[in-house]
Amino acid sequence: MNTSVMLHAAATPTAPALVLRPWCLEDVDAVVEAYRDPTLGRWTSSRPENEAGGVEWIQAQQRGWAVGDQLGFAVLEAQSDTTAPQLVGNVVLKDVAPGKPSAEAGYWTLAHARGRGIASRALETLTTWAFETFRAEGLEVMELLHQADNVASCRVAQKSRFEFARTLPAAPPLYPLDSHLHLRHASP
Where in the numbering of this chain does the N-acetyltransferase domain appear (predicted)? Predict the structure, then answer.
């Protein structure tokens, strides 16, 4: 799989442009810092707590690209022309495979980036790219799962045109609480 994929979400009148690129080892410190946020820790199963854990997390992202079944992107917010883009989140396309009609999207945002539409813009960019890239291989629907009590993720899903499909029962230990399943179908 091509790990040099770069996706872009144009600036809006109220928000800077976003750049989505595969994770790299230079992101380790930012990943560790991101997972120190207790809110993020509540919604995610992996929690790299130190540099070694951050390296493992990045390497897992890179393995996903190498295998081609889990394509994770660092979400960066463009700054001024003289300032480097700032990490604001993560989006991932999971379980994508030729001939498989569905894949799953996931995301998180850093605490300082929440409530600004970053997750929905990054998710929209990922979803559009996924359908453009994998539709010829059979991708017809994108799934999005979140814990039922994660109201913010429900809003992001709806804003990104992922329709609520049903509530899935808890399946501990991996899914300790009920989850919502949202779907978005490829446009005809």
Answer: 18-188
**Domain-located, residue 178:** yes
Q: Is the separation of the CB atoms in 163 and 179 below 8 Å?
A: no
Mean pLDDT of the chain: 90
- pLDDT tens-digit profile of 109-142? 998 888 999 999 999 999 999 999 999 999 999 9
Q: Into how many domains does the chain fold?
A: 1
Tell me the average pLDDT across 139-155.
94
User: Angle of helix 118-134 relative to helix 151-159, nearest 10 degrees?
Assistant: 50
Total-model pTM? 0.91
Structure tokens at 119: 């997750």
**Is residue 114, in this structure, part of any structural domain at all?**
yes
What is the pLDDT averaged over residues 73-78? 94
> What's the full length of the chain, in residues?
188
Which CATH number covers residue 170?
A: 3.40.630.30
Burial group, residue 26, by CB count within 10 angstroms (0-12, 13-18, 19+): exposed
What secondary structure does DSSP assign to 99-114, as a single string? T-SEEEEEEEE-GGGT
H or E stretch at 147: strand 141-147
